[in-house]
Amino acid sequence: MLGSLDLNDVFIVPFLKEPTLSTGIAAGAGGIVVLGALAVALLLTVKGWWKPLWSEWLTSLDHKKIGVMYVVLAAIMLIRGVLEAVVMRAQQVSPAPGFLSVEHHAELFSTHGTIMIFFVAMPFLTGVINVVMPLQIGARDMEFPFMNAVSLWLSVGGAALVMASLVVGHFETGGWTAYPPYTGIKLSPNEGVDYWIWSLALTSVGTTLSGINFAVTIYKQRAPGMDLMKMPIFAWTTLCTAILMIFAMMPLTVASFMLALDRHAGFHFFTASNGGNMMNFANMFWLFGHPEVYILILPAFGVFSHVIPTFSGKKLYGYTSLVWATIAIAVLSFTVWVHHFFTMGQTANLNAIFGIATMTIGVPTGVKVFNWLLTMWRGKLRFSTAMLFSAGFMFTFVIGGITGVMLANPTIDFATHNSLFLVAHFHNMLIPGLLFGMFAAVNYWFPLAFGFRLDETWGRRSFWFWMIGFYLAFMPLYAIGLMGAPRRMAFFTDPAYFPWLVVAMIGALCVLAGLTSQVIQIWVSVKNRESLMVPAGDPWDGRGLEWSLGCPVPEYDFTTVPHITSREPWVDAKAAGKRVMDPTEFVDIHLPKPTGMPILVAGVATVGAFALIFEMWLIAAVCFVAMWVLVLIRSYDTDWEETITAEELREGYEAHKRLVETTPKVSLDDEFTSKNRGLILEEAV
User: Fold this and answer.
1) Angstrom distance (rounded) from CA 555 to CA 335
2) Which residues make beta-bridge pairs with 358?
């Protein structure tokens, strides 16, 4: 029944058998997971929070709450990812061979990459999209609310497996890309690669479902009058991201299943000695992997296209060109995957074709940067935390883009591909291109979900720590990468690298300080939430339709679905002296009831995946059948809606109208003070 699972897989046993600093750190990490889970359970029990947590959050099908839970998942995994990065930096700056075993270090950089891509970046952007996109297009929810919740809990299940690898067994040591033959059964016979396969299988299926949901919601749920060229830019980047999710996640899912069949069913898709071809894995992985880069970055581009106009006090420059640039990036992202393995033996002609395609994709990206700069030009700039992260992104992302164009040249790439230069470039794209964008989004749109602003003082401190930390942590890697320092190394012996590694270590500590500042920012904001409340909504003199609503946004979003006649209907309404959007017709609406079925489906799938990891075939088979039985039961559920009457909606509209009419008007000069209760105006009245 227990398959390959035995006592030696428990996190504390290796330390008891061989007490070293490396095994002690591993045991400590597992202990933190176990004790942390117990502490959370105890806190919820003592406070009596289990019932409201279950009824109001965990079982909710409200897109905003689902989005918030995605972001919470990303935040938890971000803490682990950053801590692992600090440990790796400490290992490399220590005298050789360092304090970690080679295998432990390899496990760390494998989990770090896997976590940051699949369990920080993906849930972060999916959560922000969930909260914001339906509000921007005038929708009341996602097209498929139940599927939306299943997507969330599948992602949580995948993350849970990665966390479980700290407690039971080990994660794989072949990097986040898990290239065979190293990840084949002969060279990696333990459970590590299977942890990678099945955690990614859960989250990739969930992400594919999210992509379908986002695309169909945008196609079918837009408010009357909102044609595609009236959609906000964030909705456009979401649409292109959704299409990439639908088509790009499948190669990863297929490749991981094929690797599982190679490992456990005697197949030979990737074993060259038996007629397979390991390059097929590289092609399928990066056929997912490069569109994935733009799955991560496009939503952040959409965030900047709202933050920058808002805090510049200007209309977004070049809307049409931004739309076409977004579409061009989405299309071209499928044409460049081979540049991820220029060193693996393709012909010079093939490398040249993909090098040219890679350089070409920089053109629409450049269009976006110039449009943002021209939006800021002669604007009335206000450097909120969100605006600081946006400005920091532009400056830093351009550096990463320049190094990307360099690496698009196959001859340069051949010399630097397996060096720390590539590591620096990769982080130079994703930290400002994804994390800075999501940090800006949280600081900008936080009031929509919770009704109060985040503390600006700690937000700005977090920005400066992140910005300084990024440059100190990764610019030295460009230098020593060009000096020949290879990536994936547990330690270095060349003394020329040491000063640069010390600077990188200081940078990692600054990044950790930035993350700590964000935790403090949340704590301080919750503590002082009464002074940060913005119940009237629109605390930034915003331009999007989402700011026409009160904060926090009610479960049904809009009391009446607005009729759209321009790209910025809320700006037009404010220009006409209105403080609320004109109502259309009040009608009864139907919203899905809370249900625990998504958690049950994903929970059974997660248990089944864990069983597959440790070869518990009977348990895995039972879970597979049970998962589909639960889906079938849900299919026959006819009592899944609740009605909100037209009268309730009318009362909600009147209450919001009375609130905004009695809220004192304040100027932008008081934007970051306790005077801001919402409905900020450019000029004092």
Assistant:
1) 41
2) none
Among all chains, which residue has been given the structure tokens 């990840």?
A: 183
d(CA 565, CA 164): 51
How does DSSP classify residue 561?
P
Please tell me whether residue 86 adopts helix, strand or coil conformation.
helix
For residue 368, give the nearest of 425, 417, 302 by alpha carbon. Answer: 302
Residues in the chain: 685
Q: At 285, which amino acid appears?
A: F
Which element (helix H / strand E) includes 591?
Answer: strand 589-592
Phi-psi label, residue 378: left if phi above 0, alpha if psi -120 to 50, beta otherwise: left
Name the β-bridge partners of 533.
Answer: 452
CA distance 432 to 469: 12
Please state, in angstroms and rounded to a whole number, the distance separating the CA atoms of residues 158 and 608. 12
Q: Scanning the structure block, which residue is given the tokens 């092609």?
A: 283
Q: Contact, 586 vs 560, CB < 8 A?
A: yes
Q: Is the dihedral of CA 71, 77, 83, 86 positive or negative?
A: negative
For residue 683, the model assigns a pLDDT of: 52
The residue with tokens 């929509």 is: 448
Q: Which tokens sit at 615?
A: 């070869």
pTM: 0.96
| C-alpha span between 52 and 42 (Å, rounded) | 15
pLDDT of residue 47: 94
CA distance 622 to 438: 39
Non-local (6+) Cβ contacts of 596 within 8 A are: 54, 58, 59
First vs last C-alpha separation in the chain: 73
Residue numbers in the chain where pLDDT is lower than 70: 681-685
pLDDT at position 2: 80
Predicted local distance difference test score (pLDDT) of residue 685: 32
Beta-carbon neighbour count of residue 354 at 10 Å?
A: 21
Contact 397, 432 (CB under 8 A): yes
Give backbone dihedrals phi and psi of 57, rounded to 5 degrees, phi first.
-125, -65
Q: For position 390, what pLDDT does the model report?
A: 97
Fill in the DSSP letter of residue 140: S
CB–CB of 209/250 below 8 Å? no
- SS3 of residue 643 by DSSP: strand
Residues 491, 98: contact at Cβ < 8 Å?
yes
